[in-house]
Amino acid sequence: MKKVFIALVLALTTLGASAQLLYRISGRGLTSPSYIVGTYHLAPVSFVDSIPGIRKAMADTQQTYGELMMNELFEADSLAMIQQAMMLPDGVTLDSLLTADEMGRLNAFMRNLMGMDLTNPMLAQQMKKMTPTALTTTITMLSYMKKGGGFDPQNSFDDYFQKQAHAQGKGVGGLETMAFQVKTLFAGTPMERQKELLMCYVDNATFMDEMTESIVRAFFAQDIDAIEKAMDMKLNSSCDNRPEEEAALIYDRNADWVTKMPTLMEQKPTLFAVGAAHLPGEKGVLHLLRQAGYAVEGVVE
Fold first, then answer.
1. How many other C-beta atoms can be found within 10 angstroms of the C-beta atom of residue 44?
2. Distances in Å between the alpha carbon of 29 and those of 181, 263, 264, 290?
3. Which terminal CB of the chain, N or C, has fewer other CB atoms within 10 Å?
């Protein structure tokens, strides 16, 4: 379960014209370029060397910024904060929130996923007190791992860039705080909506798996346009993200980062390593940087 907590606060093809994960940021008075690389939180560290130009970008920059400072994930206070945010209030359990029919569908899903359900005392002890949002995120992770995806919290893809910078005596920082991410991921959705989204996952598991697989394929193809397309897959029902939910999870954060990045880039050439889902689109970080007057170019070699 500790791997799941740490993971939260998350087929190679020939590269084409839009197939980059690494971008150079220049112009608007910068004396040296900075870079931004799109990450996938569960990708293996070995994939780093598949990104053209990444080693030079790491060498040429003097500090590295992620969504947050990754070493905070391993601090006792942070783990306690995450676990508290993932748990229901005292005296409340999932079976007191869901109907008997919903619990039946959830248990059938869990048996298919794990070979046991929430009637199992051991599993119930770990999961029955989780908020619906926390359980949805957990089963998403477990579904990914069941299909062969691995995750090493001690050597995560995002953390790699910060560890390398730290080892070379370079600055390391985060665009957000741990408290902000925990609040955004776990405290921003009303309980009724949390329950609805949990059952959406349970009742549409095949679609959810296809969406995740599409995002993973697009990432390893280094194609952010395909990542955007995969994220836009819809059921055309209340299960789809609402505009305000997409804003809170992606677009508002993008806009906030772009207000912070100029000062950092003016101080020192910076490598930003953030989730690849934040890069594409008209509200993505790349377009917002261009709107701010920067030249943003994909690095292909």
1. 15
2. 32, 12, 13, 14
3. C
Name, in order, each residue with C-beta under 8 angstroms of 220's C-beta and a sequence gap of 6 or more. Answer: 11, 12, 43, 47
pTM of the model: 0.88
Contact indicator for 300, 15 with CB cutoff of 8 Å: yes
Structure tokens given for 184: 């955004």
Contacts of 106-111 with C-beta under 8 Å, sequence gap 24+, read 106/198, 106/199, 106/202, 109/139, 109/202, 109/205, 110/139
* Closest by Cα among 275, 65, 40, 266 to 176: 65
Percent of the chain at pLDDT above 70?
Answer: 91
Beta strand spans in the chain (E): 22-26, 34-39, 63-66, 171-174, 270-275, 295-298
Q: Tokens at residue 116, please? A: 């046991």
Residues 235 and 207 sit within 8 Å (Cβ to Cβ): yes
Q: Based on the number of CB atoms within 10 Å of its own CB, is 17 exposed (0-12), middle (13-18) or buried (19 or more)?
A: exposed
pLDDT tens digits for range 262-279? 999 999 999 999 999 999
Pairing, β 295-298 against β 22-26: antiparallel
Report in angstroms the alpha-carbon separations of 121 from 51, 127, 128, 243, 297. 45, 10, 10, 39, 54
